[in-house]
Backbone:
């Protein structure tokens, strides 16, 4: 993977709309936004991931990033409009050294060895060996796909952004003849904080199917949820769309890296939820994919994939670093 993609992001602010509320500052995963003289500024355009999170969270629609969002919001259409100004860079970016990231993927991969996953180097007819290990701006990263009995795929990814943030993801997708939940973990760690999603995402609608809610979610997760939902300092997630498809037992939000005991609870949550999923996996029996019930399951899974494709902030980041073609392949592995 080439390391010559480094560029400054075209980032613009509508000065008449921006109210200096700071919601974008809180939402930015790289912590490169600030409010100066009551207006949002970007402190280091080279490190923008182009994820679009700041745009989505801005209550006044005052932020514009070239290539992110609709064509009407492209900064290419704003350069001749004097009420829009490029984000200032007069604030000195805070230097960030290499961070001692948490070994969450190592712990999770130890757990799933029990199901004998086999790595594959072709996925959906595409050669994916180039993703087995690559660099982004000189930082080692990888995205890998695995097969196992009863499963469509296990997608595991570690993406290192400038040594300032690392996104660790594991998605386990059930096979076509199984209605067990997905296992989902997204662990995005930077110098000061961790953004976290952990869930057994239901293959069927638990609001429609009370038996599914009881057997696949409440029974394995209720006690774990009561323990981990009250982790001190865990702030609500800004990605409200995630709630639309995940279970009532999702643990998600942002937490400061200190004190370490709170991060340890997140770490243990990821491992315990995976063990709960593993117990369901072991008991799972195949179902006829052509039944009305399984057709509903497959339709829901299709809708989940579409929702992720429309909203996942990682899409812009991967397009920036990998290019459109490789980004699409990468996302096919690590999205549900």
Residues:
């Amino acid at each position: 993977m080439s390391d010559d993609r480094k560029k400054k992001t075209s980032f613009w602010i509508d000065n008449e709309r921006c109210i200096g509320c700071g919601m974008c500052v809180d939402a930015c995963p790289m912590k490169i936004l600030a409010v100066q003289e009551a207006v949002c500024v970007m402190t280091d355009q080279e490190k923008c991931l182009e994820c679009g999170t700041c745009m989505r969270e801005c209550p006044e629609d005052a932020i514009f990033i070239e290539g992110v969002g609709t064509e009407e919001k492209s900064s290419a259409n704003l350069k001749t409009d004097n009420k829009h100004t490029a984000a200032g860079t007069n604030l000195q970016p805070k230097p960030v050294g290499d961070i001692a990231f948490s070994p969450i993927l190592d712990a999770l991969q130890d757990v799933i060895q029990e199901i004998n996953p086999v790595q594959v180097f072709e996925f959906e007819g595409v050669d994916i060996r180039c993703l087995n290990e690559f660099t982004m701006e000189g930082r080692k990263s990888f995205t890998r796909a695995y097969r196992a009995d009863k499963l469509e795929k296990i997608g595991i990814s570690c993406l290192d952004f400038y040594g300032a943030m690392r996104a660790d993801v594991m998605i386990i997708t059930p096979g076509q003849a199984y209605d067990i939940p997905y296992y989902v973990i997204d662990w995005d760690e930077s110098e000061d904080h961790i953004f976290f999603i952990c869930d057994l995402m239901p293959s069927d609608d638990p609001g429609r199917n009370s038996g599914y809610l009881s057997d696949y979610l409440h029974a394995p997760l209720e006690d774990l949820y009561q323990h981990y939902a009250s982790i001190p300092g865990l702030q609500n997630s800004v990605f409200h769309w995630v709630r639309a498809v995940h279970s009532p037992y999702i643990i998600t939000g942002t937490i400061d890296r200190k004190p370490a005991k709170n991060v340890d609870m997140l770490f243990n949550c990821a491992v315990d939820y995976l063990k709960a999923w593993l117990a369901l996996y072991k008991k799972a029996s195949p179902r006829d994919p052509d039944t009305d019930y399984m057709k509903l399951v497959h339709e829901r899974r299709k809708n989940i994939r579409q929702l992720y494709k429309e909203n996942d902030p990682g899409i812009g980041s991967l397009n920036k670093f990998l290019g459109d073609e490789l980004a699409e392949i990468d996302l096919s592995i690590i999205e549900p």
